[in-house]
Amino acid sequence: MRRETVVCSTPSALAAAESDPADVTARKYRRSFQSGVSIGAFLHRSGEVFAILLRQEGVYRLQHCQTMEDVMKKFIFAVLALPSLVLATEEPAAPGAPGIASLAGVWELIGAYREHRDGSRSDDYGAKPRGTLTVGSDGRYALQIYHMDRPPFAGDFRAAEASEYKRLLLAMSTHFGSLAVEEGKLVFRIAAASNPQWDGSVQRRSYQLQGEVLEWRVPQRPDGDVPISVWRRVR
Length: 235
Description:
The chain has two domains: 11-80, no CATH class; 85-233, Lipocalin (Beta Barrel), CATH 2.40.128.280. The protein starts with 10 loop residues before the first helix and ends with a strand. α2 packs antiparallel against α3 and α3 packs antiparallel against α4 (68-80). Helix content is 29%, strand content 29%. The protein has six helices and nine strands, in the order αααααββββαβββββ. It holds the Pfam family Lipocalin_5. Residues 105-223 form the Lipocalin-like domain. This is Lipocalin-like domain protein.
């Protein structure tokens, strides 16, 4: 039977759960938030808590009594706020990063594909994906890609089924951190992402920049497909 626990953050409740790793992380989350961390660090720690919640059954406390749906809702809202927050809060990349000046600006997504072994392509985020990429002159960046054919929730967002949340999370790709051009490749040093496995990772992508159009290729997936993202600079 699936275990579901909803516990308020009272002294007695905290004392009863000292051995629970998810609760330990949640308490660190609360202390850090109350002590006044940067938004970037706050979002990164939110991702840590979210990853633990996905790996374990039940519902764990954060600030108040919350359900898994409440936690996922807040996480998704935090992801949506990334472009307006990260460029003002993350530590800057090393000044003078080679080639980064050519990428500075705001970009809109004009294509997201999967290239198959035979050279053919198919849509990776639906026929009309939307996305934005913001790159600062110091290399800080924030990226979002969304599948726009996502069906709406059947009912109230807070009472959605787990399968609906899963579908929503798989229909987007978001991350932020620092970006550089090294040895002819884009190097993403990812601070945090909608996929917790990418948190703290370094990813390299081959790319082409032709005028105001930027295209990059993600390393080949296990099935042999190569994801390709195409962007147009709008300012």
